[in-house]
Design brief:
flat, 5-stranded antiparallel beta sheet, Immunoglobulin-like, 4 helices, 196 residues, alpha+beta, 12 strands
Length: 196
């Protein structure tokens, strides 16, 4: 073996582990977790009032419309009514404070319109390629399923029956994802999250 090959092998032995270590650190995904001292159950931050219990966590939308994760900041929330009377959860009950800015949930109508627009624009991607009618029907059915799946997966405001619960996603401005931490406000009860 020549001297040049020995030097090259030594460099590879030294440099390769460093490159692998740096790449693994660069590719690691950082996510938000509740701050120390916050009541948690199954990785959800839990807030209890006299009549309501909130469980929440930032979580990617798990449905078929995965583009929503690139455009918005999803938070999954579950609200349980532990009282013996109906309790109304009005719109505007939830907000996020991040980097000294207040973020309200993006209205579901806007997100559904965004999905409809992306479906409509997709049909004009390649005007010079003829459409396969059988594939077109399958695509339209799948896109309609995505629309209704998103509609049923979103949190719905309104009355919660005694002992009942509601759950679903709230979508916020994507700018929250750039923050090192944020406070989620649920009817005046704040929960602090930090990046891990």
């Amino acid at each position: 073996m020549t001297a040049a090959k020995k030097i090259t092998n030594r460099i590879a032995v030294i440099v390769l582990p460093i490159v692998v270590l740096l790449l693994s650190g660069a590719c690691s995904i950082r996510y938000f977790v509740p701050e120390e001292g916050t009541l948690t159950e199954d990785r959800y931050a839990v807030v209890r009032s006299d009549s309501l219990q909130f469980a929440l966590r930032p979580q990617s939308y798990l449905g078929n419309y995965q583009d929503v994760n690139n455009r918005f900041f999803p938070v999954f929330i579950r609200v349980k009514n532990s009282s013996t009377r109906r309790i109304k959860v009005p719109e505007g009950s939830f907000g996020i404070l991040a980097n000294d800015r207040q973020f309200d949930p993006v209205p579901l109508q806007y997100i559904l319109a965004n999905l409809r627009q992306s479906i409509w624009l997709k049909s004009y991607d390649n005007l010079f390629q003829p459409e396969d009618p059988s594939q077109s029907v399958l695509d339209k059915t799948r896109e309609q399923d995505m629309y209704y799946e998103l509609l049923s997966s979103a949190f719905s405001y309104g009355d919660i029956l005694p002992g009942g619960s509601k759950e679903g996603y709230l979508f916020y401005d994507r700018a929250i994802d750039a923050a090192e931490g944020f406070t989620f406000d649920a009817l005046g009860y704040g929960v602090r999250f930090r990046r891990k």
